[in-house]
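Input.
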Amino acid sequence: ADPDGCAAVEARLAADDEPIDLLVNNAGFGTAGAFWELPLDGEAREVALNAVAVLRLSHAALGPMVARGRGAVVNVSSLASNQPTPGMATYGATKAFVT
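Output.
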């Protein structure tokens, strides 16, 4: 979820010379514990990778795909997206975003 790394992938997805036909959003990680006790920067990194990166990369990929009339985006989520899991509030919320 490094902003520079994400920007590099976005640029590659938008490149006209070698079009991308498939984007698979599969990266992610989860933290566990009482939400108020977990370090906020770790939770922010989790949101950045599990949700914001999906948003940014999908946005970058879809414009060229629609213009070409072909391509697909596959989002990999988790059962945690719709099944409450004690101690995994941020993970569940980010996977619900993807779903």
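The mean pLDDT is 93.
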